[in-house]
Design brief:
The protein is α/β, with parallel strands linked by helices and 294 residues long. It is globular. It has two domains: 189 residues, P-loop containing nucleotide triphosphate hydrolases (Rossmann fold, 3-Layer(aba) Sandwich), CATH 3.40.50.300; 75 residues, no CATH class. Helix 5 links the parallel strand 7 and strand 8. Helix 2 packs across helix 3 and helix 3 packs across helix 4. The protein has an eight-stranded mixed β-sheet with strand order 6-7-8-3-9-10-11-12, sandwiched between helices. A four-stranded antiparallel β-sheet has the order 2-1-4-5, with helices on one face.
């Protein structure tokens, strides 16, 4: 059996509770992501989504378990994993183009100045930015433009895994929709593997190949993996007409509104793999939990 591109195996995170004991945020979480797949994770605040993201990025260590990516265990930050945060995280003293060239040069130290510049410009243009803003600093850009720069920078370093931590959460609805479209265009042309956190159900359905659903914390777990059986390319105006759209959406709403609380604290199966849910002609087909790769 081939091993998945990214494998999270029996990961647990505990913190001191301030009273001499421990607080278990999530326990024995196991899931996988295939190369080129776009996976979104949904769950209520406190279930450990951002903690999982930090562990995948190498910014935090799990209390137990392992993260294996492309055959190697993740340990510490690396340019192999690009991160886009909600708060843009641009260097305020650098211009738009230099924020990108700084990262590209670090990723490709043998490239010439011309190669670095051309590669950086290409990725800024891919997210809809032109030369008029290349020499502006972040303080001279709108929130949507800043996030476009962050996305361009992340794609430009060609990471093995792109991590998106609620990247559109601070944007207004119209800007959010426009950048979602740009993200899909760039992703479709790069075969990039993406793992994303969002609280927006409609955004998750639009973007994802699969959605992982977490129960409430403490002792949270990833209970289900829902396949988004809506063909690509997708647009907001067209996906709502697909027969599976509202079935999937209602499933997600029901889980987050009710079942995430009911399932909280349950350990699930021995390996704690998420149950697969696949909608065919608006009817759910529930699969068994896949075995861990050997």
């Amino acid at each position: 059996m081939p091993k998945p591109y990214l494998s999270v195996e029996r990961m647990t995170q505990r913190y001191p509770d301030g009273e001499g004991g421990e607080l278990t945020v999530f326990e024995n979480a196991s899931f996988s992501v295939e190369k080129g797949e776009f996976v979104v994770i949904l769950g209520h605040s406190g279930c450990g989504k951002s903690t999982i993201m930090n562990i995948l990025s190498g910014l935090a260590d799990a209390s137990m378990g392992a993260v294996i990516m492309d055959g190697e265990e993740v340990s510490g930050p690396s340019l192999e994993r690009g991160v886009v945060f909600q708060n843009y995280s641009l260097l305020p003293w650098l211009t738009t183009i230099k924020n990108v060239t700084f990262a590209v040069r670090a990723r490709n130290p043998t490239w010439s100045k011309e190669q670095v510049l051309a590669h950086s410009k290409k990725h800024l243009e891919m997210v809809g930015l032109n030369e008029e803003v290349f020499n502006r600093k972040p303080s001279q850009l709108s929130g949507g433009m800043r996030q476009r720069v962050s996305i361009a920078r992340a794609f430009a370093i060609s990471p093995k895994l792109l991590l998106l931590d609620e990247p559109f959460g601070a944007l207004d609805a119209l800007t959010r929709g426009t950048i979602q479209d740009e993200l899909l265009k760039v992703w479709a042309g790069t075969n990039q593997t993406v793992f994303m956190i969002t609280h927006d159900i409609d955004e998750a359905i639009l973007l994802a190949d699969r959605i992982l659903l977490m129960t409430n914390g403490p002792f949270a777990r990833i209970a289900e993996s829902v396949d988004i059986t809506i063909p690509r390319p997708r647009t907001r105006t067209e996906i709502v007409e697909h027969p599976n759209y509202y079935s999937i959406r209602n499933h997600l709403v029901q889980f987050l509104g009710k079942r995430s609380k009911e399932l909280a604290g349950q350990t699930g199966a021995e390996e704690n793999r998420p149950e697969i849910v696949h909608y065919e002609n608006t009817k759910p087909v529930r699969g068994s939990k896949p075995k861990l790769a050997s």
